Amino acid sequence: MLSDIEIAQEAKMQLITEVADKLGILPQELEPYGHYKAKLSLDLIKRLENRPDGKLILVTAITPTPAGEGKSTTTVGLAQGMAKNGQNVIVALREPSLGPCMGVKGGAAGGGYSQVVPMEDINLHFTGDIHAVTTAHNLLSAMLDNHLQQGNKLNLDPRRITWKRVMDMNDRALRNIVIGLGGKAHGVPREDGFDISVASEVMAILCLADGLADLKDRLARIVVGYTYAGEAVTCGMLNAQGAMAALLKEAIKPNLVQTLENVPALIHGGPFANIAHGCNSVMATRTALKLADFVITEAGFGADLGAEKFFDIKCRYAGLKPAAAVIVATVRALKMHGGVPKTELAAPNAEAVAKGIVNLEKHIENVQGFGVPVVVAINRFSQDTAEEMAVISQACEKLGVPVALSDVFARGGEGGRELAELVTQVMATKESCFKPLYEDELPLADKIRRVACEIYGAKEVVFSKAAAASLKTFTEMGFGNLPVCMAKTQYSFSDDATLLGRPSGFTLTVRGVRVSAGAGFVVALTGDIMTMPGLPKLPAAEKIDIDDAGRISGLF
After folding, report:
1. Distance from the Cα of residue 123 to its chain's centroid
2. 8 A C-beta contact, residue 517 and residue 475
3. How far is CA 329 from CA 70, 396, 449, in A?
4. DSSP annotation string for 63-131
5. Rounded Cα–Cα distance for residues 387 and 349 (Å)
6. Which of 155, 272, 288, 543 is most buried when burial is the number of CB atoms within 10 A of its CB?
7. Helix (H) / strand (E) containing 404
8. Are 24 and 292 in contact, with CB atoms under 8 Å apart?
9. Strand partners of residue 39
């Protein structure tokens, strides 16, 4: 059996100019990075402004497990299935972070015969967007510390600086550091730390901005810390937004690649969904909607995280109205939610699937609560039995939710045709009545309670004294109308990763709150969420290699 990377390396890719030509993109609107990937110019986006939009389809999933659910694979496979059915379709995905690629999670290019290519490039440096985000972010850090060194005219309190540094790698040793040691010439000593680059507010801003002007305005609004008097200090006060925007002038342009079956794909932006809003860029999605009749995008982790933020943050700001949502479910994940340990997932156990189905049911209820028609995709794995898959189908039938088998990992677009036909039928017969979960005017604490109680199933929400004080301060500062972005474990509806299935009656604790004024949301921190992951005992990087001919192996 071929590995993902071996399948990708055997792909017969079209030249990126040919992919662009199929979409009606003019040669001067394409900025190639080699033969098989390219940036789309801002002139193209401007030219497309008055075109009607295609239909937007969101792919989300049940609560993820370490076994993996194949959401990106299903997204790509669904697009290939629609293309095989003669439909004009584009995929819109996020860019993978190097941290998970070298750690444990793996990349985000799909798998098997439903991948985006060139897979190695996409999963490694790609077109340099994440590096640009890292550099722009750290420029602001450098200018902030230089301001302290040069007299601190803004009276910034070094103890209340909220802006950390970032790097695109999992490195737990950098979570908490001390900088400025070595004497007067080397800066002002203070505590600092690193987040992973995709957790940077700059990444969130890049993915929510609708152009260079908006990008620069959002950068200027970033709150980096507070004065001794408790007043906010922003990026704009440090006059850093112009240089940061200049560093991001190429990164803001969407990237064009293709799937294994030459379906066009826009891959742009990479915020995590457990600590950020988990969606690809607004500019890529909007551009795709102008270029195709159907756009298939995905949101990170389960529907309680990525999909909720897609609906309440991205759709709210971009004015998007999704036509349908696909929830990916797997037999093995439902077995884990039914109490089966990872080591025993290969053994048939229809009873455990039935026990774990409550997790899928809750995700269906949540997505339907946004007024979006739902389709369930059973992402098939080779060890799945007919009896186990029948349990999922029967549960969906009882709920009145259409369900289709997805065999896109093994069969590519051909294995996605059934799902593609069902999604198309649902969009033609069921109108989307999309609406966000809450109104802008709802107080911040109540927005958090609504997400926790209605989406997660919590009985109540408890705020630490620090979190309650911050919410009060942020409201007084004028941020009360912003949406909330929950930072929570992806492995449970609750803030406790060990509570699988559909927990109820639990209390969600908000231990801290911070404002991302540039991105335009307030982050609520729950549980033990880390904004700088660490490498596992056996990191994936140990298996990655390259030969004398430049051929990479071991990536996946």
Report:
1. 15
2. no
3. 9, 11, 27
4. S--TT---HHHHHHHHHHHHHHTT--EEEEEPPPPHHHHHSSS--SSEETTEEEESHHHHHTTTTSHHH
5. 9
6. 288
7. strand 403-406
8. no
9. 31, 255
d(CA 34, CA 38): 7
pLDDT at 106 over 70: no
Across 23-44, b (16+ Cβ under 10 Å) vs e yields bebeeebbbebeebbbbbbbeb
Q: Is the peptide bond before 118 cis (omega within 30 degrees of 0)?
A: yes
- Tokens (6 digits) for 177: 């550091």
- Which residues neighbour 297 within 8 Å (Cβ) at sequence distance 6 or greater? 56, 57, 58, 59, 75, 91, 92, 93, 279, 280, 285, 288
User: How far does Cα 415 stand from its chain's mean position?
Assistant: 25
What are the structure tokens assigned to 395, written together? Answer: 């549960």
Contact 525, 512 (CB under 8 A): yes
CA 280 to chain centre: 6
Report how far residue 15's alpha carbon sits from residue 17's, in angstroms, rounded to the nearest whole number: 5
Question: Per DSSP, what are the bridge partners of residue 427?
Answer: none
User: Which residue, among 325, 457, 454, has the nearest Cα to 55 in the 3D structure?
Assistant: 325
Check if the beta carbon of residue 338 is closer than 8 Å to that of residue 501.
yes
DSSP, collapsed to helix, strand or coil, labels residue 388 as helix
Contact of 357 with 394, CB cutoff 8 Å: no
Tell me the average pLDDT across 77-99: 96
> What tokens appear for 486 in the block?
């929950």
Model pLDDT for residues 447-487, shown as the tens digit of each residue: 999 999 999 999 999 999 999 999 999 999 999 999 999 99
Structure tokens that stand for 286 in this block = 């909007």
Total residue length of the chain: 556
For 442, counting Cβ atoms within 10 Å of its Cβ (0-12 exposed, 13-18 middle, 19+ buried), the class is middle
Tell me the C-alpha distance between 102 and 555, whole Å: 9
CB 31 within 8 A of CB 40: yes
Residues 350-366: tens digit of each pLDDT: 999 999 999 999 999 99
Structure tokens at 556: 């996946």
Q: Which residues of 82-114 are buried (b: 16+ CB within 10 A; e: fewer)?
A: bbbeeeebbbbbbbbbbbbbbbbbbbbbbbbbb
